[in-house]
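Hello again,

I reread your note about wanting to compare the complex against the isolated chains. To keep things tidy I'm splitting this into two emails, and this first one only covers the full assembly. Below are the input lines as submitted, including protein chains and any nucleic acid or small-molecule components. They are followed by the predicted structure of everything together. The single-chain runs will come separately.
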Amino acid sequence: MNATEVARTLVERSPDALLVASLGTATSALRSASDDGPHLYFGGAMGSATATALGIADAVPEREVIALVGDGDLLMGASTLWSISALAPANLLLVALVDGHYSITGGQPISAETRFVEVARSLRHLAAARAHSTDELASLLPTLSRPGLLEAVLAERTWPGSSPFVDPHRVRRRFAARVNGGSEQDGSQTEGAEP
Amino acid sequence: MLLACDTNSAVVVPDSRLDGILQCLSEQGLPVRQLTREEECVAFAAGHRICGRRPVLFMQSSGLGNAANALGSLAVPYGLCPPLVISMRGTGEEQNPSQVPMGQSTEPLLTALGVQVFSIRSDADVEPVARRALTAGFDEDTAVAVLLEPALGGGRDERD
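Full-complex prediction:
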């Protein structure tokens, strides 16, 4: 399983979910898997994608929210797991891409074993499971209770391909339109219409 | 004033000087979300903003250092900055030397990040300054911070 296959599984199995991708591999994978769909791609702010997904889940509790985050990113913002435990949003799923490396900064190994599943299970209200294949991931997506954390264990560390550098205002416009039920084409059609 | 400007949630890392405001907002039915770190609060509030909500973020000036990257790499470039209400430490008659460098850096750091700074020093400042800042923050898509200066009062106990 590689990062793009994980992202493609999310896009195909949860087509109406609001998707948030952390910087680097997760953003590249989700752009590749969704043909640059109207998702919330991070171009920076390492460690913050999980908290933004939590804010979205809190703001629109009727929508399903999925955060696709790198393992280094989740580690940097790990205290948000405690905030998720406190707020217990019933519409939030984290999918952690676990390959044990900081890919975007040059592939350096993460010094500690992350053990996100074990940490999440020790916190109140958080469910957690580990998937080693897209079949396992697909079967866990509808069954894991929310808030939940799924570790997608990556056997392949291939770079997805799409650029991780995004236009922040374009990302915001398209995602905000998606929150409001607009079509996926809204953003590109209104490109340049706002200051 | 926060309610008059249709603020609809408060995101906060605790501070004794902010307790009264938050208590008041909570009594008015506003959700108050207490998180673990200021950087996390900025990112969380950006999530509210992109969904069209109107959150205000409350923090101590020392927390601005923790929040800097989420402001500079997310909230400001994406146009998703929540109005910041910052309780100032490290200025005026600050008794704790450890608070001074971050307190003295607060305004220059905000300015460098592209966040407009408004200061409240007296009760008379509250209404006009808060209204201007919140209007800019919510309706004009501008990154703003309101600094609650020591002269405004609401001082701390020795242990704070």
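For quick reference: Residues 31-96+108-152 of chain B form a domain with the Rossmann fold fold (CATH 3.40.50.970).

B.
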